[in-house]
Structures are given as structure tokens and as C-alpha cells.
Specification:
single chain, about 230 residues, mainly beta, Jelly Rolls, 8-stranded antiparallel sheet, 5-stranded antiparallel sheet, 13 strands, about 35% strand, globular, binds fe (ii) ion
Length: about 230
């Protein structure tokens, strides 16, 4: 992705969050200059990769296959002594027909919440023993109501609704056409993008970036180390 595109998408997301009164913590607005200055007191943000995350999943077509996320809080399995927090929270922007590819998590249980805007369509499959798509049925909980589903069934979340995605449950999602972008929340166990994502098709989790202009904001994997 070009840096100019990432800059524009973050500005657009900030505008959307502000219009819908979803307020972000101070570090969402920190410039690269602040990041070069701030010391070890911000290590929790650095080490737990909190903050902006814009990805085209390495496929080079963000509007078709992509996701913009902001991680508000997270623990860290690899540094549990320092960060024993067992939960995570994210806010995302999912555009109409913009796909997050089919994947599951071995460990993470996540509630996906439609926090406003359009409708979120989620396509679901159980994983089989070989981590492929099972044709078996399964049950999910949609705001406390159990729903029995078949392979490939879709659940549509309107604003305010949420679904609990259990480990080993394959999910792919996108915004419903004609309904506008969706602000999507995630409340989950600790998020570990290094080890806990199983994509059905092998794809990249983070984009390759072409630096065609300076970054307005660092992404969560770009923070410089503390110098003091
Ligand atoms: Fe997921």
C-alpha cells in the first residue's frame, strides 16, 4: 500500500469515529515526532502493538480485501509477567463489500459488535480436523440467543448487534452493499497476530508500504524504540 493511502484512510476513520462519537485514547492522535520523543513510559503501547493497523492482507487492493483497525487495549502472551491482561478491544472500519478473508483463531474468542453505520455480513464455517472448511453445522450465540447454522451460512449484524466467534470457527466479513461503512467493535481474549491467525488461503497480515509521503501516524508495528 502507498503511505499516502494509509494516511488518507486513517484521517477518514478519525472523521467517522468522531461523527459517531466513538472517542479514541490520546495515543491515536500522536504524530511520529511524539513517538520519537516519548520514552519507556509508552512501552505498553509499543510492546502490545496498540494503535493503528491498516492492511490489504498483502493483496494490493484495499477497497476489495482490506481492513482498518485501531487496537485500544491488549495483553501479551509472550510477556505475560509484564502484561497479564487477559483481554483485548479493537475498533474497526469495514466498508461496503470490503472483505476480511476467511480465518479462525486457535486461542482467541472474540465478540464482533456492530457499533454503528451499515450492516455487517459474517460468513461462517466450522473448521474440520485438517483446518479446512467443514460441511457440518454448528451453533453460535448472537447477543445471548443461540442460533444453529449450516456451513457457509451468513449472519447479518445491524447496528447494536453482536456475535460471539469461538476458537476454530472460520469467519469472513464485509459491509452489506448499499448500507454504508460499518464501525465494528471487537472485545476478545488477548490478540496475537503473530501466532493465532489461521487464514484459509495463505496471505499476509500486514501490508508492504511504499513511502510516497511522510506518515501522519505510525502503524502499530512501526513505533521507534524508546531512547530514554
Ligand atoms: Fe477474527
Amino acid at each position: 500500500m502507498k503511505r499516502s493511502e494509509i494516511n488518507r484512510l486513517i484521517e477518514e476513520a478519525l472523521d467517522l469515529f468522531s461523527k459517531t462519537s466513538f472517542l479514541l485514547p490520546p495515543f491515536a492522535f500522536w504524530s511520529p515526532e511524539i513517538w520519537w520523543e516519548i520514552g519507556q513510559e509508552a512501552n505498553e503501547i509499543r510492546e502490545n502493538t496498540l494503535g493503528w493497523d491498516v492492511t490489504d492482507f498483502g493483496l494490493g487492493d484495499f477497497s476489495r480485501t482490506g481492513l482498518l483497525l485501531f487496537t485500544i487495549r491488549n495483553g501479551n502472551y509472550a510477556k505475560k509477567d509484564r502484561y497479564p491482561k487477559g483481554y483485548a478491544e479493537k475498533i474497526m472500519v469495514v466498508k461496503e463489500e470490503q472483505i476480511t478473508p476467511m480465518h479462525f483463531h486457535w486461542k482467541k474468542r472474540e465478540d464482533i459488535i456492530n457499533r454503528g453505520g451499515g450492516n455487517l455480513v459474517i460468513e461462517l464455517y466450522a473448521a474440520d480436523r485438517d483446518e479446512g472448511l467443514s460441511q457440518e453445522g454448528f451453533a453460535v450465540s448472537v447477543d445471548g440467543i443461540r442460533r444453529n447454522l449450516g456451513a457457509g451460512d451468513r449472519v447479518i449484524l445491524t447496528p447494536g448487534e453482536s456475535i460471539c466467534l469461538t476458537p476454530l470457527l472460520y469467519h469472513s466479513f464485509y459491509g452489506e452493499a448499499g448500507k454504508g461503512p460499518v464501525i465494528v467493535g471487537e472485545v476478545s481474549d488477548v490478540n496475537d497476530d503473530e501466532l493465532d491467525n489461521r487464514f484459509l488461503q495463505p496471505i499476509g497480515r500486514f501490508p508492504l508500504i511504499i513511502e510516497d509521503e511522510p506518515p501522519l501516524y505510525f502503524l502499530c508495528n512501526e513505533y521507534p524504540p524508546a531512547r530514554k
